[in-house]
Amino acid sequence: MSVGITDPVEAGLGAVVTGFDLDSPVPEAEEALRRAFRASPVLCIRGCKATPESFTRCARIFGTPKRELLGIMRDPACAEISLVERKQGISTATGKAAIFGSQWHTDDSFMAVPCAATLLYGEIVPPKGGDTAFTNMHAAYEALPDEAKSRIQGLKAVHMFQARRNVSPVPERTPEEEAQTPPVTHPLVRTHPETGRKALYLNPNRIDRIADMPLAEGDALLDELIEHATQPAFVHVHGWQPDDIVIWDNRCTMHRASPHEGDHPRRLLRILIEGTVPV
To answer: Rounded to an integer, what distance in angstroms lies between the CA atom of residue 95 and that of residue 82?
Structure first.
C-alpha cells in the first residue's frame, strides 16, 4: 500500500497520512513522513493499530525518544512511553478528573533542553469531544507588525514547572524530579534549528515572567502575545479517531486539550523526542 499525504488542513497545520505500514515501514515511506512533518508541524498518521513497540519504532523516525520526567506518568513496561488517561488527576474534593493541558502550552519548556516534538497515540478515544487544538507559532510571529518584532527580539522569558502565571493543574514532583527542574530562561522568539524560520516561543502555563522586565509590563506583553498567537486564523483543531498517531513540533506550535462528555474512557500513549537548547 502506498503512503498518501494530504495538504495541511487549517493554519498550515494538520496534514494527514494514510497507508503507512507501522509494522513494516520502508525507508522511502519514513522519509515521506519526515518531509511532511517539516511542511506541517502537526501531522496525523491515521489508521495504524499500534503496540508500544511499533509506536516507539514510529517515534524514532522523527528523532530520539526521551524519558518522561514524571515517574507517575511513565508506562512501567516501557520507559520511553508515558500514559495520559481519563482517570489521572481525580480530585478528592469533587471526584472529577482534572483536564491536564486544558490551557495553551508547549511541552517541556520548563526544561533547559525541551523536547523537540511530541507523539500521541489514541489507543482509546471517546466517541465525542476530547479534541486537541494547535496554534501555528511561525504564522503568529510572521503576522506581527515590524515594530512588535523589534520590541520582542532578544527578550527572554523565565520558564518554571510551577510558574507564577500557571493556569492549569500541575502534577506533584518528587524531590528528585524537583532537583531536575530549576527555573530556566528561553528566548521569546525562537529560530527553528532545521528550517531557520522564527516562531514565538510561549507557554502560558510555564512562563513565570519576562526576564529583566518589571512584572506588570512583562505580564501585559505576555498577555498581548498570547492573545495574538491564539487567534482562530492560526489554529487547527484535531478531532481524534481511534488509532490516530499525532505528532507536533513543540518548537513552533502550542496546543491544548478539550474535555469530552460522559464517563467514556480515554487512554493515550505519549512519547517525547529529544530537542536542542532554544536559540
So the answer is: 23
Decide: helix, strand or coil at residue 90: strand
Q: How far apart are CA 40 and CA 43, in angstroms?
A: 6
Q: What is the pLDDT of residues 251-268, one digit of tens each?
A: 999 999 987 666 788 899
Which of 89-98, 166-175, 205-214 has the highest mean predicted lDDT (pLDDT)? 205-214
Dist. CA 244–CA 158, nearest whole Å = 34
Among the listed residues 10, 6, 14, the one whose alpha carbon sits nearest the alpha carbon of residue 247? 14
Question: What are the cell numbers at 108?
Answer: 517541556
pTM, whole model, 2 decimals? 0.92
Neighbour-count burial of 27, counting CB atoms closer than 10 A to its CB (0-12 exposed, 13-18 middle, 19+ buried) = exposed
Q: Which residues pair with 5 in a beta bridge?
A: 17
Report the amino acid identity of residue 23: D
